[in-house]
Amino acid sequence: MASSRILQRMAEHLDRLEREGLLRAPAVLAGVNFCSNDYLGLSSSPGLKAALQNAIQVCDRIGSTGSRLLSGHHHLWEQLEDEFARFAGTDAAVFFTSGYAANVGLLSCLITRDDVVFSDELNHASIIDGIRLSGARKIVYPHADLNFLEDALRRENSGASRVRLIVTETIFSMDGDQAPLRDLFSLANRYGAAIIADEAHATGVYGPRGAGLVAELGLQRQALAVIETCGKALAGMGAFVCGTAVLKRFLVNRARTFMFTTALPPYAAMQITMALRLAQTMEAERDHVRSLAAALRGQLVGNNFDCGSSNSHIVPLMLPGCDESVLVASRLQALGFAVRAIRPPTVAKGRERLRLSLTAKLTSDDLHAFTAAVSAVAPRQNG
Predict the structure, then answer these.
(1) Which of 77, 136, 213, 328 is the right S-S partner for 111, CB 3.0 to 4.6 Å?
(2) Residue burial 230-255, b: 16+ Cβ < 10 Å; e: rest
(3) pTM as predicted
């Protein structure tokens, strides 16, 4: 039977992953959490929890009932999109049910086979998949390599109808370094290219009131689109594509991940609204997270560990080799630290690591205890 052959193929693939140390499974981690994206600590906020409880009570329904173009729309989503656009500093915003859906929906409908996309090699899978679905020609430039990118833009600077688009994360989710945004926008202007910036890991943590690094530079209106995520620092779900009113109308009519996705229930809009308002007031937490990150990098590097090029609240602890990274993660978990090994295909072979993410709930004592634990169980990579 065909199904038997498919099942056998799946089993063989899983066996191969297990032999190579790449088999994964969800797990509930206990201990001091060094792998959470809850950067501001809002997921345990009493105020946010109370807002959600109130939202469930006052909303006229707790189910979605359909896509927003069918029966799932609610005035709360429009109000939230308007409020989020003001937060992001753009004319409009449209909500997608996940960051993945936002990038795939945006890129797959925005560009065509006649266009050229320049994508940083470390961009998230959702960006890669969105470009692939668009059919556009893709030029992957080495991570943050402006010289390579400029040469590629210069070569492709022909064809009046051809769109040239640069796509980048603003903080790279695995390496924790920041994109050279000012230079990228300068290149885009010089060569007539558009630019899309994904603020997934900057939303809530950087920029004015947490609006991100593009807003910090005042470049929001020069971007074709800015993606802001709610499922990390905002402790919610979904993501916004922020840009012009024309972009919003186009996405509502053409982005398949918007058109054919069941909407979230209206109370989710109230939860995100409250999280957004709380996050904008949390300057002390933003400062604390960035201070912790700098301190952790200093401690780890001072103990001859490799933290790559991180300059954000995401700090990679490089541990090349699947077996090595899994072993160290397991030892640290046994010592009371919630960490996970990051392996291919999330990162390239030889670039395995622990992805350490700092949150406002951590303390300086937590950092010292963690560094001591790492020093006891992990091999140094420097010196």
Answers:
(1) 136
(2) bbbbbbbbbbbbbbeeebbebbeeeb
(3) 0.94
